[in-house]
Amino acid sequence: MRADFSVMKALKAAVVFVPQAWAGAWLVLVLMFAALAGGPWLLAGQQLPLNFAPLLLIFCILLLKLVSHGALYRIALFGKEARAEGLGFGGLQIARPELRLLLASLIAGAFVMLVAGAIFLVFAIALSLSGLATGYENSMAAVCAIWRRHSGVDYVFIVYILAAILFLVFVALKFVLMPAANIGGRKLVALNALGLSSGNVGRLFIGLMVIVLPFALACGLAVRQFGHGNAFMWLHSALLVLTIFGLFPLIVGFLASAYRQIMAIRSK
Q: Are 18 and 241 in contact (CB under 8 A)?
């Protein structure tokens, strides 16, 4: 059964959700900002030769991302019942939903990597057989040359590259409802999340672009205007604040609303 959700309704829900996200997950969002803003600065000033320090920072950021996903989706999907679903103080909690999110992300990531690997393998074989890679240090150098040259069979490879990128974006969009399904469905949802977005990939793309594009344009203009000298550090912090406390909750609110709408339509 086709379940088309309302993009406008989901966008309105995303805006309403932002203050709810601040109230319920303020601590994990602050910690994520601290890790992203202060982590690189601490590593730069690190006097001890701790080779594992960057890996530790990456681990902390990924862990906070996982925990924040669990918190925000609990708040977005269950509202006042989020506490009963395991929401911790300030959004800090590690429970079965977070473990489901982690396992589902690993499975989906492995699937996407297999797809991307197959696409790259076909491209590499075709490039080698065509002889276009001859005389270049590696495949990337050959691809750059093809992209600049634009002649003859080059167009075939250029079309293949563009089609591959669009296909990978499509696959990624097929998985965007997976976190909401794991939290809202209270069960492991990994590859079966592909069916959740059936018929709605275009709507999901439009909604996400409405949220992301203004932010991306504003960031680009800000970096162009102030992305140099002493102002860069302040700009970096400001963009992190907008990303963590604005963009991130908006995306979660939009996807949670889309998931709720789709599930409500399919249950009729």
A: no
**What are the tens digits of pLDDT across the range 146-182?**
777 766 667 777 888 899 999 999 999 999 999 999 9
Give the helix/strand (H/E) hosting 14: helix 7-44
Residue 174 makes CB contacts below 8 A (sequence gap 6+) with 193, 194, 197, 201
pLDDT tier at 213, thresholds 50, 70, 90: very high
For residues 218 and 175, the answer to whether their CB atoms sit within 8 Å is no
What would the two tokens of residue 261 be? 């709408």
What's 1's DSSP letter?
Answer: -
| Alpha-carbon gap, residue 268 to 263, rounded angstroms | 9
Let me know how many helices (H) and strands (E) the chain has, helices first. Answer: 9, 0
The answer to whether 249 touches 256, Cβ cutoff 8 Å, is no
Distance CA 201, CA 33 (A): 31
- For the chain, the maximum distance between any two Cα atoms, rounded to a whole number of angstroms, is 64
